[in-house]
Amino acid sequence: MIPSLASFALAGSAMGILVTGMLAVMFLRDPVKGMDWTTHRAGDLPKVMANRYTAFTMLACGATAYRDLTVIAFLFAVFAFMSLADTWIYGQQGLPYAKHLMAGVAAAVVSVVAIAALIFQSGASV
């Protein structure tokens, strides 16, 4: 039996999870090694962040256009995690973090509202 295209897509997604997870662990354990291994350069961080914010916007547009509240809830929970993690990082250094905190709370609210709609409104995922 020949595997379906969906099976290949899911396998590719699983591989992406493994590689991205490995990079996350690498950066958590040794940020310098992570930067070196990924060939990122601190001086290019503003350009990298522009790419990341563009990608986050595209993900949010896709989730919204697809109208799947489960995807929206998960995506915005991840956005909240990222923002609140940045809040923690900057707060620990005594640096301003209010914008990250506000973004994290806003993303968490979107996630919670999407979850509430899924729980309390029949057919809400459409």
Task: Walk me through what this model shows.
This protein is mainly α and 126 residues long. It folds into two domains: 40 residues; 83 residues. Helices cover 81% and strands 0% of the residues. The protein has five helices and no strands. It is flat, with a radius of gyration of 18 Å. The mean pLDDT is 94.
Q: What percent of the residues sit in helical stretches (DSSP H or I)?
A: over 70%
Strand content: under 5%
| Principal-axes shape call | flat
Number of helices: 5
Could you outline the blueprint of secondary structure elements for this entry?
Layout: H1 5-29, H2 31-38, H3 45-66, H4 69-92, H5 98-120
Identify the notable features of this structure and list them briefly.
126 residues, mainly alpha, 2 domains, flat
Quick take:
The protein has helices at residues 5-29, 31-38, 45-66, 69-92, 98-120.
